[in-house]
Each structure stands twice: as C-alpha cells, then as structure tokens.
Amino acid sequence: MPILPIDTGRYGSPEIRKVFDEEARLQRFLDVEAALAKAHAELGNIPAEAAEEIASKANVNYVKLERVKEIEARIKHDLMAVVEALEEVCGPHGRFVHFGATSYDIEDTATALQLKEALEIIEARMLEVVKELLRLTEEHAETVMVGRTHGQHAPPITLGFKFAVWLREMARHVERLKQVRERVLVGKMSGAVGTMAGFGPKALELQRRVMEILGLKPAEISTQIVQRDRYAELISLFALIASSLDKFATEIRNLQRPEIMEVAEGFEAEQVGSSTMPHKQNPITCERICSLAKLVRGLVVPAYENIPLWHERDLTNSASERFLIPESCILLEEMLRSTVSVLRGLRIYPDNMRKNLELTQGRILSEAVMLAMVKKGVPRKQAHEKFRRLSAKSMLEKRTLLEVALEDPEVSRLLSREELERLLNAEEYLGMSVKLARDMVELTRKELGL
Fold it and tell me: Cα–Cα distance between 218 and 103 in angstroms, integer?
C-alpha cells in the first residue's frame, strides 16, 4: 500500500520513479550478473554456454520479484536472494552465476546504472529550466524594475538582468553535473575486500570488460564498495541545485506579494487558492519548490555520514542509501519540473514595476546624483552626506528628491534642473544591465550548444 508521496505519485514524474521502482532495481542487478557471466566466458573462466544461459534468463520475465522476496524472507540477504533466484532458472549452469563476485560488486554497479539513467532525466530537466530562462532574459532584457537590497529599494535593474543571473547559476550547475558524472558513474568487480582475489589473474581485464558491456567506467580502486565520497559529491550537487531553485522560487513569491505584484506564478481558471478565502491566488508551486529544497539539503548529512565506514566496509550506509539516492533524484526532478512550469506560466506586470520605481520619489537614484556632484569637484564623502540628508528630507516631507535637491544652493549651483531630471531617470541609470543580460544569453547558448 502506498504511504509516502513519492509512492502515491504525487512527486516525481513516472519516468524518474520508474528508474527506482523495485522491479527496475532487480533488472539492474540481473543486468550486472549477465555482464559478469559474459565477461567470464570471454576470458575463458566459465563455459560459453553457461554465460549464454545466464544472460538469457537474467531478466524479470524469468526471475520474478515475488520469488526474490520469498527467498529473502528466508535467508535475510537481498542480493543473495537475487543470485539464488537466478540460479534456479538457469539449471545446471546456475553454478556459474555470481562467479567470484561479492554482493556490492552487483549492487554498486547496479546503482551506477540507475544513476546514469536518472542523471540523463535530471540534466534534460535542467536544460528545460535553462531554455525558459534564456527566453525570459531575452524578452525582458529592457524591462526596467527596481533593484532591492536588504528588502529595500536600491538602484534600478532590468527583469532580464535578474533572469540572466539565474541563467548563469543554472549553466554552472549543468557544467557541475557533467563533471560529477565522471566520478559517480563507475562500477566495480573487485570482490570481498577490493583485491579482486576471487577473479584470478585476469581480474582487471574482467572488471574492464564488465563495465564496457554496461557502459560504465570501472572504479580505479575500491574496497568491498565504491567509496561513498562519490555519492556524497553528487548529493551535495543536488542540494546546490535545489538551493538555487529555492532561491528563484522565493524571489517570485516575494515579488508576487500584492503590495509589490511585479511577477506572479500562473493560476489556472479552475484552480482554488484557499478553502475559506475565495480570492486567494497562492504561489503554491513555488512554495512546493521551497519545501522540497529543505528535504534535498537534509539528505546531504546522511550522504556525508556514509563516507566513514569501518575498515573495508560495514553496512551502516545501506539502509540510509535506500532512501537518499532515489529520494534525492526524484525530489530534485520534481523541483526542476515545477520550476519549468512556473517559468512558462509566469505573469509579469511592467506597469507595477514602473509604479514601484516611483515609490521612493527618486531616492533610488541618489547614487547617480552623488557621483555627478563628485565629477563637479565635490569630495565624495561630502557629496554622500549631502544626499543622505536630502534623501531623508525627501522621505520625511514626502516630496521628490528632485524638489528638495533643487532647493539646495550647492546642488542647484552645480547641476541644472535638466541635468537632475536626467540623473533621476531610472532608464538612464541601468549601467550594463541590458548588455549583460544579452551577453549572458549568447554565452549560455554557446557553452551549452542551445
């Protein structure tokens, strides 16, 4: 009976959940056993007909999940249950199943096969996020809005500039994923303590050939297990990606506040926002992203705790990995799909952006006027203090900075009304915002081949 939201299908696409379901996991074990038998036969370690029989029966049409579970209930060993079930269907050739291997030769290599498939899905989702950010950056490179620091109004930026910052963050994550793949997608055939003693003099060649058949790289050296720094690195990267998505969603949620309302996630015609408040249009998808990010970050700790095992290995990593590897992949994929949905349906309100630019009556451009005064010969500290006081006066008296600045003898002597009006025009103080946004689009397309 389904219990957790992943089990019920609430989170994670059918595609990513299928990678980690029980039958798919069993098939990956069998794939590794088949590759091991083939490699043994090629090297003359077992009869060719035995390898053929094992390979032909190493699938879930012959080795049934129910039978594996029956055996496991009796012998209390999950991988040995798979081996015994495969031996049963292979007849006399069954004695060559799992020849020379230890359990985690099969389990860790099967995990690499699952991760290979999962990372392809995750990267595809990441690229979908990148493509949406490319579109939004291009469309809004010149859409002027107020910048904010400490939650307070700061000099203006463009919405495209904001999206370009997110775009480059995602581009770095794509690059990180490509790099971490090289260290994570490895398998092993090294036996009980990693010395390969059970595989004989051709052990290194056997390991190389098994991984070649499976499309993996062999771990350069291992104990009974692939070392867990590899998984810890991957899950740390997942936490980084999740934190970026959390950041994007948090920003959208903040900008959707009714008193700001510059952007908002989409809201469907039949969607209900509240069971009691009919007017509500809550940013629930963004909130889901933020909520799941907490879980993904939380998985980093057990991943790190799994690195220091006793001697050549103990079993304290096993139970936690049954959760953290599928959970981290499925939850991150859910977050990525949700982010794509939010970006595609994003509602954008340029009129509110223009209105919010005027809320501080020109004070957000005080830096521009201060710098102009410095260019006219006023010491920077003096100019800064001048406009700190004039900004405070503007705020207190609820008058524009232009008005109070023109009343100041020193300012009006050095700067004309026309100069002040230009300096206090938000569109005149965007710096490199527009160029940077467009440059980041070009750079990202070039880097990622989009």
Answer: 16
